[in-house]
What does this fold into?
Amino acid sequence: MGQIVSGASNRKGPNGARQHIYDLLRAQIRDGTLPVGSRVPSTRTLAAEHSVSRTTVTSAFEQLIAEGYLETAAGQVARVAGSPAFQVTKGAAPMGSRPPSLSNYAQRVMATHPPGSPGDPPPIDFLYGAVELRNFPLTAWRRAYVSELVRHQPHLNYALPEGDLHFRQTLHAYLRRARGLTCDADQIVVVHGATQALDLCARLLLDPGDAFAMEEPGYVTARRSFEATGARRLSVPVDANGLVTTKLPEGHNARLVYVTPSHQFPLGGVLPIGRRLELLAWAKRQDAWIIEDDYDGEFRYGQRPIDALQSMDSEGRVIYVGTFSKALSPQLRLGYLVLPRQLVSAFRQAKRLTDHHAPVLEQRTLAALIESGAYERHVRRVRRDYDRKRRTLIASVAQYLPADAQIGGDAAGLHVVLWLPSFQPEDERRIASAARHRGVGVYPVSPLFADALNHFHPRPAGLILGYASLSLEQIQNGIRILASTMAAASANLD
Amino acid sequence: MGQIVSGASNRKGPNGARQHIYDLLRAQIRDGTLPVGSRVPSTRTLAAEHSVSRTTVTSAFEQLIAEGYLETAAGQVARVAGSPAFQVTKGAAPMGSRPPSLSNYAQRVMATHPPGSPGDPPPIDFLYGAVELRNFPLTAWRRAYVSELVRHQPHLNYALPEGDLHFRQTLHAYLRRARGLTCDADQIVVVHGATQALDLCARLLLDPGDAFAMEEPGYVTARRSFEATGARRLSVPVDANGLVTTKLPEGHNARLVYVTPSHQFPLGGVLPIGRRLELLAWAKRQDAWIIEDDYDGEFRYGQRPIDALQSMDSEGRVIYVGTFSKALSPQLRLGYLVLPRQLVSAFRQAKRLTDHHAPVLEQRTLAALIESGAYERHVRRVRRDYDRKRRTLIASVAQYLPADAQIGGDAAGLHVVLWLPSFQPEDERRIASAARHRGVGVYPVSPLFADALNHFHPRPAGLILGYASLSLEQIQNGIRILASTMAAASANLD
It folds into this structure.
């Protein structure tokens, strides 16, 4: 208990003397110096002993009485209150009996390896998911936030689980304009980033033993969320055009399929219209949900972004997942679900139960940016910036890497895949760690295959290159260094 | 598909003409006017027809090719691409086959009734959980947020699941000072409000069929979170001193117990030291976790706040749940868990998987307020304000209500219970709705009993009165109106 007393004596404030008396008596009661039922020294005695006023002592007594350490009857001196239980922690036991075990969910979460965090980031890091921080609309965001903070003060209490109505209305109009979505504002549930959207889908749509289909290779967090429910994964291969819909599982009673049609993660294919229709037809046959993760659909180069799959869904089977992590910043944790009507109520209630609602101020701030047009101007500006970086990356690869090196998935998004036909998948890690050794972070494709190297084989070695957070110079230098690394690596191969 | 085309034609931007051609062709392909394999009119023809440049038409073609509607070989005219799947959505089917069913979790969530939302709030609303909005430290928050936004810009990417290290260190020092907690910063996991803390406990510690113990009456959201896992509730009665620890279930293999020792919700008892020790001893015997929800522990009147139960835990069994919803605002959605060491890793991984991490800017802002001392000054100021309101409430009850009316749980927190011995629990709803009719919101105790009126019976009627968000005048008027309502009600009883 010493820690507590010292913890207590750390406390500042005007009541130092009272605090001292309080701590002293509590410690003596706890360690049995003052046994249960015994009389406590009178306020007079203690006041004299510690040369403090009797009022100070009385105030300490009151605290101890309030906390149940002391009891007193009218006109009597205080006695140490309590029961035999008082002795329980005398000489506290060290970390006792085995810790109670965790739930099955917890054990599944612990069993799946979290995405590796490779220590300090290298000077030039082609990390996927990082964005250009200078692109954050600092001034616009600050102005909007501050004005919402003031205007909005009367609304600082609990809000709707589905999110701020005004924000959902603004977002709804934007999604129709920018992504072709066909929905109403009340089909939107604002969530704490796309990660929460996927977790809610997993909890509300999957039971242990159920089957779900997803892209292979695919987004590890989505896979982990779905598998953490105890559901069974059915991997569907992807090619340069995204999900190979002819390989969708029939007769396994899959409850849902997870897809990234605008820009397949990680390989970058854009799902063609024919496959989109086949996917919708499959979902109807299987009576399954389609989770469309549109994680970077706003960043398509050359043509305007392709309308979301949701816009073709005439049956209410597509759950659309959107995020502001790419266009603004991942740390804002702002995302949203666009739900089929029959799912709205369940998701609202689950959101209420899991974390009540998303912070309101950020929703209002973003609504203001969207309404003023600042958000769309920002996205256009950022898209141009990322396009420059993308073209620099492609040019650098052509300039520095062997002729057989190919870039895939560059039509959209903030990353590409670099295919290296003169290397095997087994070489990816070696190349990546050699490059990291020279200060360049590149990321093997293999870990994104759920079934390691078994699927989609034979294939060349592949590296994921995210370029959003790097400068043009960093991109050029990074690829140059990667090239020399690979030259050394192939030398080792001979 | 008409909706989509109109959705598309809503789009603004420089590419109106290209957009028009694109929408037209896509619609004709989708409705079969241009069958699969057929030639598309030449760019020349279309340019002439629509009096636009051929470049415009070509650009629309490129988009359609990119999306897989058209295909073209070198030197050939474009043809409509695709497969029989194209016909699938022709004349889209109306809302088709039965919606796939939801998970067991979802069905349990849907089965439990959400806390009733009684429409528009009455003019004088004794709603528990609402706080005084004028108390929000607007200027301090704005200054800190803006300076963090600028300083912090280099850290706008993904952050640690357990929360910002600097915030956790600041919070750790504060919790030792203010609540006597004995922990390190790495035992803290920052969450999206106390609601998420409880949901994470439910998911990580309970399986279907497990047993959990909780206060009866108790916090409905906690009960719903635990029951949503499929676990079995064991109700433990509370009295004026909180949880009746002698009634804790033995031999039911309870995995955890949920308690609010600083200020029992809703009845307001402060758990005495003896019961705290008995509770810890029970948890050791049962090998169970204790979830200590310290939802308003900072607001104790008269004496300084009682140290948290966690400060007496020598065995690492107490999971401490804290929130800033009462001291600042519920809409910030900032809360935290202080975990026994053996749970830290599971909670971090689960947080990562459920929503990655809490927003960083708000954590940094709050850290700045705590470091500067502004937060503790704020809490002291707010405590004085709420104490004034509390005393006004007590005085008004003495002045206006019958002598037998008693107030309970007024030693701490932002609400009290009003006991009305001349009424039965069955009368609570009638009184509440009559009061609401007169513009005063008061809240029956009965719905907070999991087993309705069976437990803790016979007892008088009880009403929960939250006073934090009301002015002194509103409190006086509210009680006056409630008194006349009750007079009328008792008249009806005769």
In short: Chain A has a mean pLDDT of 86.
